[in-house]
């Protein structure tokens, strides 16, 4: 696998024609992305492998997410399919921290969804509070809070998040067919 790129290195490769593929959800992408990036949500990477392979042959690919975890996963999937792609170390967070601009996209109001990290924080907090509240009557219910805490610690140590993977499967987090159509068009332009 390639060494992750720094924001200035990616900026230079974009100038040379590399296409940036943003693997975050459509709502996260709309809130701010590397200019010119094409949105291919992580769950759609396998479905779009033929399109990604063709684009990688023509102009090269760089993969981006918010902080780097999803782009690393996407790069592993691409590598397993024989597709070469670089990843941006630190994701769009690092891009923005380097003083580079983010582009924003308009989404219809009904598709405005919280960013995944916000959904995880909300769900984890709600489950912990539920475990503590129910634990006042049923002491074993506090194990729910302990389990969520352990999951959050593991998430922090491993850089992965099982709760985010589960939440990504919910209907409001699934890409609209138009998102995939736009991704295909962006990959072929």
β-strand number: 4
Can you summarize the main beta sheet? 4 strands, parallel
Shape: elongated
**N-C termini distance:** 26 Å
The share of residues in extended strands comes to 5-15%
Please identify the structural class as seen in this structure: alpha/beta
* C-alpha Rg (nearest Å): 18 Å
- N-to-C series of helices and strands: HEHEHEHEHHHHH
The neighbouring-strand order within the major sheet is 2-1-3-4
- Overall pLDDT: 88
Task: List low-pLDDT spans.
Answer: none
Q: What is the helix content? A: 40-55%
Number of helices: 9
Q: Describe it for me?
A:
There is one protein chain. Helix content is 53%, strand content 6%. The chain has nine helices and four strands; from the N terminus they run αβαβαβαβααααα. A four-stranded parallel beta sheet has the order 2-1-3-4. Strand 1 (19-22), helix 2 (26-31) and strand 2 (38-39) form a beta-alpha-beta unit. The model has no long low-confidence stretch (mean pLDDT 88).
């Amino acid at each position: 696998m390639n060494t992750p790129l720094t924001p200035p290195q990616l900026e230079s490769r974009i100038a040379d024609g590399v296409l940036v593929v943003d693997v975050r959800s459509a709502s996260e992408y709309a809130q701010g992305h590397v200019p010119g990036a094409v949105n291919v949500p992580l769950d759609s990477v396998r479905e779009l492998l033929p399109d990604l392979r063709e684009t990688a042959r023509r102009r090269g690919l760089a993969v981006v997410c918010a902080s780097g975890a999803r782009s690393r996963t996407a790069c592993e999937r691409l590598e397993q399919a024989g597709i070469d792609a670089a990843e941006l170390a630190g994701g769009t967070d690092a891009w923005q921290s380097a003083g580079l601009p983010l582009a924003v996209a308009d989404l219809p109001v009904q598709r405005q969804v919280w960013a995944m990290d916000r959904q995880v924080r909300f769900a984890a907090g709600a489950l912990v509070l539920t475990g503590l509240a129910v634990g006042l009557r049923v002491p074993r219910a506090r194990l729910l809070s302990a389990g969520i805490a352990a999951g959050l610690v593991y998430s922090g140590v491993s850089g992965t998040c099982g709760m985010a993977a589960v939440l990504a499967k919910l209907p409001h987090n699934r890409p609209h067919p138009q998102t995939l159509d736009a991704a295909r068009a962006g990959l072929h332009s």
